[in-house]
Amino acid sequence: MTTQRPLPSALAYVPFVSVDNMMRLVNHLGAETLLTELADYIEADFKRWPEFDKTPRIASHSADGVIELMPTADRENYGFKYVNGHPANMKRGFQTVTAFGVLSSVANGYPVLLSEMTVLTALRTAATSALVARYLAPRDATVMAMIGNGAQCEFQAMAFRAICGITDLRLYDIDPAATDKAARNLEAEGFAVTRCASGEEAVQGAQIITTCTADKQYATILTDNMVGAGVHINAIGGDCPGKTELHADILRRSDIFVEYPEQTRIEGEIQQLDPDHPVTELWQVMRGEAEGRREPRQITLFDSVGFAIEDFSALRYVSDLVRDTAFFEPLDMLADPDDPRDLFGMLRRAVD
Ligand SMILES: NC(=O)c1ccc[n+]([C@@H]2O[C@H](COP(=O)([O-])OP(=O)(O)OC[C@H]3O[C@@H](n4cnc5c(N)ncnc54)[C@H](O)[C@@H]3O)[C@@H](O)[C@H]2O)c1
Question: Which UniProt keywords are present, listed alphabetically (predicted)?
Fold first, then answer.
């Protein structure tokens, strides 16, 4: 006769959002609704920027890529994301970027959510880009060039339609198979798509230029002559020391907007400039304390690297979203001895 093991108490369980549940959640809500709501959470957290503990992310670099930890906290919650960036992965059948993250209670240190964050990172990066463009891009923008048609591409497009009204996409990638993949997905979503043979062709007539390429080196995806007056540049792919996408001359002609200067000066496009080159912090623009777009001929640049508060907002959003739903599994993750000091005694529960 086998004896029944006692089940852990409710304290042991942490809600876990798997990749499967994240996909179901996106399909259930609709990507554009989710991206819009997520952008609202990110904006709300940017508007209370001084309340957060902030530090540049902790990066472990290797010849193949980078693995990073991205922590932040407010008075109520602590959050961190584990994320990698390995540009050669895609050719070996792996994702360039994978991630997972945790949101915890500051009051007792217990995790309140564990989530996949590969899909969620693509969503939060896109939601942040489009939110920022709402402050910086020309108001009447409908056409966006997208250079780099990999994993992030379609998420960016969906967010820019939902939040900024982009309807026409001009796609370019050095690998035509990537452009074919993105065009197929985006035409199915109702976009007007133009496949372009070069970056120069892609930027023709675009009011917004998104660069989301992956290469572990200084690259020149945009040269100075490709950027006309009045354009907004959403530069996603330059996010590591030695990994940039724009020619430095473009930076000198642009008004540059960043998430957290202490991190962007290490990782962003502005690593190519003097360490005191003027930049504007986006949280100040969102609070009305700094100017966004001032005039139609201005070139605005979002030098995006991805900051921990965006992941915190994403975890906070998902935590609120999945509560009272079936889009998570309870994970037996925390020890729950009957007497908090008798951790050793708890081991007897598992004696067969
Ligand atoms: N800023 C952020 O918050 C943030 C968040 C996520 C990812 N990223 C970065 O965004 C980039 C794209 O990520 P992904 O997951 O889409 O990668 P991916 O590997 O899936 O796609 C990258 C695409 O860029 C193309 N490419 C490479 N060099 C190019 C060039 N010179 N011209 C045109 N296309 C080129 C590749 O062929 C590939 O299709 C990566 O560098 C990643 O680190 C940034």
Answer: Plasmid
Q: Which of 97, 156, 226, 313 to mutate to test the pocket of ligand 1 (most atoms within 8 A of CB)?
A: 97
Task: Residue 311: name the closest of 61, 32, 123 by CA.
Answer: 123
Alpha carbons 83 and 341: distance in angstroms, whole number: 34
pLDDT band for 79, please (50, 70, 90 cuts).
Answer: very high
How many CA within 13 A on the CB side of residue 214?
21
Nearest atom in ligand 1 to the alpha carbon of residue 128 is: 3
159/129 Cα distance (integer angstroms): 8
Between CA 297 and CA 310 the distance in angstroms is: 30
Tell me which residue has tokens 């994978």: 98
Chain centroid to CA 134: how far? 17
Q: Work out the pLDDT band at 1, boundaries 50, 70, 90.
A: low
Question: Could you report the per-residue pLDDT of 5-36, keeping only the tens digit for each?
Answer: 778 999 999 999 999 999 999 999 999 999 99
Angle ∠(96,98,99) on CA atoms, nearest 5: 150
Give the rounded percent of residues in the chain with a pLDDT score beyond 90. 94
Which atom in ligand 1 lies closest to the alpha carbon of residue 95? 20
pLDDT tens-place string over residues 199-231:
999 999 999 999 999 886 889 999 999 999 999
Q: For residue range 311-327, what is the model confidence (pLDDT) as tens digits?
A: 999 999 999 999 999 99
Q: Which of 239, 274, 320, 338 is catalytic?
A: 239
Residue type for 268, please?
Answer: G
Dmax of the chain from CA atoms? 81
Structure token digits, residue 32: 């554009």
- The number of beta carbons lying within 10 Å of the beta carbon of residue 282 is 25
How many Å apart are CA 203 and CA 145, to the nearest integer? 5
Strands 66-73 and 58-61 come out as antiparallel
Burial (Cβ within 10 Å: 0-12, 13-18, ≥19) of residue 20:
exposed
Domains and CATH numbers, the chain: 10-119+309-350 (3.30.1780.10), 128-307 (3.40.50.720)
